[in-house]
Amino acid sequence: MRPDLDIVASLVCSGQRVLDLGCGDGALLENLINERECSGLGVERELDDFHACISRGVPVTQGDLEAELPRFSEGEFDVAVLSLTLQAVRHPDRVLTEMKRVAARLVVSLPNFAHWRLRATLAVRGRMPVTDSLPYQWFDTPNIHLCTIRDFESLARDLGLGIDRRILIDATGNRVGGLANRAPNLLAERAVYSLET
Amino acid sequence: MVSGTGVGVVETRRAVVFSGDRPLTLASGASLPEVEVAYETYGELNADRSNAVFICHALSGDAHAAGIHQGDDPNRPGWWDNIIGPGRPLDTDRLFVICANVLGGCKGTTGPASTDPATGKPYGLRFPLIQVRDLVEVHRALLRELGVERLLAAVGGSLGGMQALQWSIDYPEEVDGAAIIAASARLTAQNIAFSAVAREAIMRDPDFAGGDYYGKERRPDPGLALARMIGHITYLSEESMREKFGRRIQDAEVPRFGFDVDFQVESYLHYQGQSFVERFDANTYLYMGRVMDYFDPFEDPVYVQSQISRGETSFLVLSFDSDWRFSTEHARVMASELRGAGGTVTFQEISSPHGHDSFLFADPPEYHRTVTSFIDRLAGQRGIGSRGDA
Q1: Of A63, A157, B49, B151, which has the fewest Cβ atoms less than 10 A away?
Q2: Which of B291, B288, B290, B285 is nearest to B201 (CA)?
Q3: ipTM confidence score
Q4: A59 and B376: CB-CB below 8 Å?
Q5: Domains of chain B
């Protein structure tokens, strides 16, 4: 499993009902179902990933998460996970509000657009940054709502989401500490949040 | 596209599954002294009897799901041939596939046209009202005859999906996976309204004779044909009808302007109605209509939860975007109720132009691809070799 998914998994308790929005090939849910006795449901739009979920035995709804989210009942899940997907949805604020409605806790990870390397590329080269964390050209990127750590925390506050934990990671998903904790918005490539509703 | 050569020549067999001191007690409390079942099987049951897949058929289906009968036109195989056979989604190189005509049917299984042992005459409307549950009990009795205790999967479209659903609710420990396709867990008022008109068409036919038309010169053919025509309209999408027929005139360039059949779509519906009466029994149509109208498997949520939460069955719920008989909303409600009861449910709405009938088609390929992924996963869990290994 991807290292950043390990971190996401560590924020989910055993036996919880987990909704994984944009669940990809279902690796996270498979791990949570088999190792942690969670029950889960994935939502995935891409067909190859949808089939990978079926092959892993991960229950999944094929479709667009923004269309599917409003169909779930209030409090249907203990945890709603959105891993590296917030920046690709059409209405990030609505998605977070809907997640808050269907689950007691949110686990959200995101790329930080204020990381110094991105800032430097933009400042020095005057071009939209292409990095390991954000490997797309501006014209073909699915990431239509990139934000910074500071932006996200401000939105979370506005939506009444309390930041329970924040784990800073690099582009390969490994934890970063030390200096990064002092200036996360400049030094962390990604952040994983556990949010209370 | 349909792959492989299919299962070849097959035959329908029969088994008496209830009789004598072992009558069938129905969910209603009524009983049937004797039940015979017509069925077909494809592939071989493996040594640990873990590879059985049961096909539940829809309203007008029968046991002949795949292959051809001796002497039949090879281009007209069983009704679900495109999904059953070597290399097909229900791969008979490694799966043992069973299909049986339902209780109340008219294709070899005991139904209203069968002889009532008490009177020596056909049951007609004295045949008891039956429920999806009863259909399942008869399937299970057949499996006992075949030495199958557990299904790898129960698979069905429309009324067939309802049986797969009921089966996994009532006996979750007997069903590894249920593929419920283009089905509903609760008919809407609109569904019941269509069903009512079809029933009236049959019962108001002067030759219906209260259901006792067997052996008589005239049967309620016009009524049954009309019922089928109404039903058929609900099976197709507006798009598929427009593509197939448009406003074209049958056998002519210009309209004849009159009350006889003129448009191609009218001619098609007439043909559907006429060919149906040659192969179907009006009383069975009435009984199956009612089986669907009254179907409500989630009526007792406490029972369903206690059954489903045992977590034995994986569910696959599929719908088609052009199906307006059992629209995607039906499937979503079903998936949500199953999940609410603790079930593990995979759901997909497939884009297809064929309306409710989509479940019978091999295209678009995404449909069979999903069924294949689901069945392969179940087979893998039971240690049944992967495709091509057999």
Answers
A1: A157
A2: B285
A3: 0.93
A4: no
A5: 9-186+295-381 (3.40.50.1820), 191-290 (1.10.1740.110)
Task: Tell me if residue B21 is catalytic.
Answer: no
* Nearest residue, CB atoms, A41 vs list B314, B339, B349: B339
Output the furthest CA–CA distance in chain A (Å, rounded).
49
Q: Which pTM was predicted?
A: 0.95
Our answer to whether residue B352 is catalytic in this structure is no
What are the pLDDT digits (tens) for A71-100? 999 999 999 999 999 999 999 999 999 999
- Pick the catalytic residue from B50, B114, B158, B319: B158
Active site residue: B81, B91, B170, B323, which one? B323
Bridge-based pairing state of the strands B115-116 and B121-122: antiparallel
pLDDT tens digits along B92-115:
999 999 999 999 999 999 999 999
Beta carbons of A61 and B314 less than 8 Å apart: no
- Residue the block writes with tokens 């971190």: A7
Q: Which of B356, B357, B358, B368 is catalytic?
A: B356
Pairwise CA distance, residues B17 & B196, whole Å: 32
What is the set of domains in chain A, with CATH numbers?
3-112+145-196 (3.40.50.150)
pLDDT tens per residue across span B58-83: 999 999 999 999 999 999 999 999 99
User: CA nearest B317 in A: which residue?
Assistant: A61
CA distances from B187 to B89, B184, B227, B233 (A): 29, 6, 18, 17
B323 assigned to active site: yes
Query: What chain A residue is nearest to B176 in terms of C-alpha separation?
Result: A57
